[in-house]
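Why do we bother with a discrete structure alphabet at all? Because it lets us treat a fold like text: something you can write down, compare, and reason about line by line. To make this less abstract, here is a complete entry for Adenine DNA glycosylase. Read it the way you would read a sentence in a foreign language you are learning: slowly, and without expecting to understand everything at once.
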Amino acid sequence: MNFTKILTHWYSVNKRSLPWRNTKNPYYIWLSEIIMQQTQIKQGLPYYEAFVTNYPTVFDLAQANEQDVLKLWQGLGYYSRARNLHASAKYIANELNGHFPTTYSDLLKLKGVGDYTASAIASICFNAPTAVVDGNVYRVLSRYFGIDTPINSTKGIKAFKTLATTLLDTKNPGDYNQAVMEFGATQCKPKNPDCTVCPLKNSCEALQQHRVDQLPVKLKKTKVTNKHFNFLVFISEDQRTLFEKRSEKGIWQNLYQFPLIESEDAILSEDFKTHPLVSRFFDTIDFSYSLYNTETIIHKLSHQHLYTKFWIIEVKQLPEKGIPISKLKTYPTPILIGNFIDSFNF
């Protein structure tokens, strides 16, 4: 059975109609690949359409204000993708005169572009024989060939890249790469795939060995840590609040938030005003307070869970220069903050 030919034929019949599949323009392919990283199509598609509408060319994206780019990205998560996207657009527009890199090695020079993205763009746009390996590809290959080497180990990453390369249709690499990814996304799904209709069922090792639900194998993730976040939502008599930009490196870099107090343990409402972290923050300011959410909001990130409380702080005047509350929604924020602003309805 020819694995490659079967998948390519399956793709020609079953592929979903997606806007970036109607073009070879590397700018649009690049946008789609960055937006769809660790994102489902149904969630990422509106963002792709919004970026294409607002920034139809790489020059438009390069000339954009980073704050506007982050605002458009809001809710998609992994904000470093948006910052890297913007930085790379400026590099292409200013250093390469708008000419998109055409080779795998040159694509790797773009900020935020790794092996997978470079391989995808090079093969789809420029017919380069570079094999893609993403989560979907790992799953298809590990199940079909019965490979239990951990996909997130150094050995596994090398082995699966080598295998993917040997299977590549060098005459039509773009369609084959999209075929194996699409197959993993819609047929060989992570949970409960319908193997009865799979065109590879007669030669799939995992199916024959009853190991479909055991593959692929992953090494255990880094231990998740818990943090307690206390956001201070100031409201002054003249309807202003404090909103600060996160400048330190991290997933929320350059996004905006209310002043934050991190504590080792949960701060109780009755202890709030006298808590050492709180009293040091306010010093001599007179204020009244209330806890907005009676149940702690748990915001789950890849390696940490944020146990979050929003404290409403009412003051006559702000301790420093603030912004009008009416302007809050114009700032790019983490989804945690954006959801609060929507629900509080200032």
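What the structure line is telling us, in plain words: The chain has two domains: 3-131+158-184, 225-344. The longest strand covers residues 225-236.
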